[in-house]
Amino acid sequence: MVDGVTLPPPRTGAAPRLSDIAGQAAVSEATVSRVLNGKQGVADSTRQRVLAALDILGYERPVRLRQRSAGLIGLVTPELTNPIFPAFAQSVEQVLAGHGYTPVLCTQLPGGATEDELVEQLVERGVGGIVFLSGLHADTSADPGRYAALTERGVPAPPPPYRVREPANPGRGVPFVLINGYNERISAPFVSPDDNAAVTMALQHLADLGHRRIGLAIGPQRYVPSRRKRDGFLAAASSVLGMDRSEAELLVCSTLFGVEGGQVAAGALLDAGCTGIVCGSDLMALGVVRTARGRGLDVPRDVSVVGFDDSQLIAFTDPPLTTVRQPVQAMAAAAVGALLEEIGGSPVQRTEYVFQPELVVRGSTAAVRA
Question: Which of 60, 194, 288, 332 is placed for a possible disulfide with 8 were both Cys, Cβ 3.0 to 4.6 Å?
Fold first, then answer.
């Protein structure tokens, strides 16, 4: 019993005291008491911290604190082998849960369900909206008409026990928001990092270390983020390094996303004499490091490498990877906020909300050798 409230047995470990919960949530014991007793006067964010503390300390939540879901929200992501996608999924789900919604995660696997098939399944289950992460909207070769069709279709009622908030404008279709990959032919809110700024700050960092032969390893050019990084690199190579565009274009290598793509790109860029390589993802950067070491080169003594994303494990690679961090939490909050405004009947401007990335300097970059 904690302050008059009998909690279920802890799932793990000894029963925490009121002070344990308060310490974990970084709030006062009085605040914990108000939350556990279901009293008013506690901010939603604070209430969520207390509930999270219960979860972390191994308690099931008291029955009185178990709220019914406000409805289902679909989250369509690519494969989860790239750590940045689970990071986005977790952030989106946390924000949705804070608003009382139940997220439904749909992952695209090679040979599995396509994005269109996943969307069909979500609509059949009566989702109130959908968040698309790095989906077909980012592929310039894909037909954007699928998203226009989504806005025109009705949404069936979800199965119990979900309680759906009635939209202010029923019949307007399924609201959705898109993360990473702006497409002007799609009328929807977009949330993106500034790819141009990301590549520019990475190249400037290497230039400040004395590198003058810098290459860019990115994914296929049909994807909007790859195109934007390429455009940013060519502009920065001219303004920062004084390169001619034709010369800079020779130092751009488009391969496949992932470690293997980074390995292939590294081979070409190292053959071109690059002492610094900027990558379109952290996984590609790890592929570059692998190829460099395979050639007997040291990172960063012989070649400096910069990644992009900064998922949680990247700080623990060997060497720790210098990378450009996507503001995942801020982007997830903005995407969910826009979607919930749409669900509530308050149309959001059909435009792109661009977030500034951050350069995180670690051990994979160093001054160029004489």
Answer: 60
